[in-house]
Amino acid sequence: MQTLIISTLLGISQPTLSQLMRGQFRGVSEAKLLELLARLGRNVQIVVGPPRRSAKPGRESCPAADIRH
Q1: What pLDDT score was predicted for residue 39?
Q2: 60-63, Cβ contacts within 8 angstroms, sequence gap of 24 or more
Q3: b/e per residue, 55-69, with b = 16+ CB within 10 A?
Q4: 39 within some domain
């Protein structure tokens, strides 16, 4: 019942919400994920840093993933 209420607030189907909650993001665009975070009242910020001097590839991080509620 709770997922039905949340999915309605987010404007997505209950099965899609359940998949996202299980970490299954296939078929959901990055833009849609950012939209859902904004609808939940989260501030979304994408920061692109300067290029690296080394030949190593850049790195990806998501500080918000380290936050535990």
Answers
A1: 92
A2: none
A3: eeeeeeeeeeeeeee
A4: yes
pLDDT score of 55: 66
Q: 36 in a domain, yes or no?
A: yes
Q: How far apart are CA 21 and CA 40, in angstroms?
A: 14
Whether residue 67 has pLDDT greater than 70: no
- Between CA 69 and CA 30 the distance in angstroms is 23
Find out whether 28 and 20 touch, Cβ atoms under 8 Å.
yes
**Rg of the chain over all Cα atoms, to the nearest angstrom:** 16
- 66 is a domain residue: no
- Count of domains observed in the chain: 1
Judge whether 63 lies within some domain.
no
Domain that holds residue 39: 2-51
| CA dihedral of 22, 27, 33, 34, whole degrees rounded to 10 | 160
